[in-house]
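Q: A reviewer asked whether we had any structural model of the full assembly, not just the individual parts. We don't, so I'm hoping you can provide one. Inputs are below.
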Amino acid sequence: MTSLVVADHDNGSIKPATLVTVAAATAIGGDIHILVAGSGSAGAADAAASVAGVSRVLHADNEVFGHNLAENLAALVVELAGDYSHILTSTTTTGKNFLPRVAALLDVAQISDVSGVISEDTFTRPIYAGNAIATVQSSDPIKVISVRGTAFDGVAAEGGTATVHAVAHATDAGLSSWLKDEIVKLERPELTAAQVIISGGRGMQSGDNFVILESVADKLGAAVGASRAAVDAGFAPNDMQVGQTGKIVAPELYIAVGISGAIQHLAGMKDSKVIVAINKDEDAPIFQVADYGLVADLFNAVPEFDKLLEG
Amino acid sequence: MKVLVTAKRVVDYNVNVRVNSDNTGIDLNNVKMSVNPFDEIAIEEAVRLREAGTAEEVIVVSVGQSNCQEQIRTALALGADRGILVETDAETQPLGVAKCIAALIEKEAPGLIITGKQAIDDDFSQTGQMIAALAGLSQATFASEVVIEDGKANVTREIDGGLETITVSLPAVVTTDLRLNEPRYASLPNIMKAKKKQIDTYTPEDLGVDMAPRLTTLKVEPPEGRQAGVIVETVEELVDKLKNEAKVIS
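A: Here is a predicted structure for the entire assembly that you could use as a starting point for your response.
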């Protein structure tokens, strides 16, 4: 039994979500190989080789893999699939994009967003925005799995001694091409990697008011998030959204400011270790999941909180 | 150009779902059912393309039991021209559904297929990508903007950390993200008109599709609850608890 983990990487390094996926593969058991498909990606392949528990790195370096186009990446994975019992990747936008294509081409089901490994063919996964946990068993010969980024503790990035093998397959399906990226330059940690997150909801009243959250975030080394209500109201861009249809996060500390706590938001943050809620409505559902609740006007409480962090 | 869109029947967004008493699924008794919200965005996008003259016909497909006709009627009231129901009592897992829709693509030859990026019941986020793979088409998932020109679509996609724009050759499968558009409400005259629109019915067997589920749900359980904590009275108390009790800030 051997698992193939398709790495999420930026050509120079491996993303932390990949370490979580390797942890899931470790829980399944057997050998673990990592596939790094990219362009100018020797750095990522070297990083993959030192991931704990990995015995082999398959390195496909070609410009057709430069922008993770689903058609080309899926074709490569399908080409390699015959040697594997399990194919795993992270539930990131890259993983969600190409993996179902792999499953369909192999004529197998995909098990999305796996949160637990029961056995080599049985897994748990959240459904209905995390309001229920399903235990599902796959009858397919190859298990194609995406792994929830908060569900396992990532394996160590160092200590492994895998060998790197070059993979020559590289065909351009010719169906799609990349035009441009508009990646938001973050001065703060990424939401899915942050130890502390402070998020604003509809109670923030405007996008400009997020500046009071940013001030706190800078003192705590935190990322800034938003609820879907805040995104829909135009207070924050969609990539800041925490929830069922946004980012799933589980930081050490999650501070929810002016967020009522709709089930779709809770689905994205309720695995956080410590949750703080600041809301002027004492009946807001967010208080039912918060470790510490403060019933107060956020426009007084947040600046005061900010000031106390200074002292 | 024909545009094919999907309309999955799901538990309404506002329903507080509960696991049923024998832990086999969700309690669906007397629960309001609706079109999957991401599919509504797909329908809206297709109707706008027709209104702009880019598309001539919008065909809406639903796969499931006969009551999925309700969701097809909703889509027709929102402006779709014609409906197709693939009627089956089998559990609708993404692979089987994608096979049905790939078969319909062969019949209907649409220039564009638009689906929701995920259904809010099983949260799989697979069907659009699987349709593209099975029909041998390009895909552009999690779209926040679609511009059609010269037999191609330029699609802006929501990716981790920002946006990406790709060009896909048509026909292609696009899956919708939240910001693509804001779906309209159906007007009463349009609801009345929708009743007269045509819905064709097929079975998976008609389309040569085997719907046998590959995944067996062994059980469904409520998530581990989280206990409500304490209400603090002041910001000072909050900072003190975070520093000295939870020890998450220093």
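A: Points you may want to mention in the reply: Chain A touches chain B through 90 residues (CB under 8 Å). The mean pLDDT of chain A is 95.
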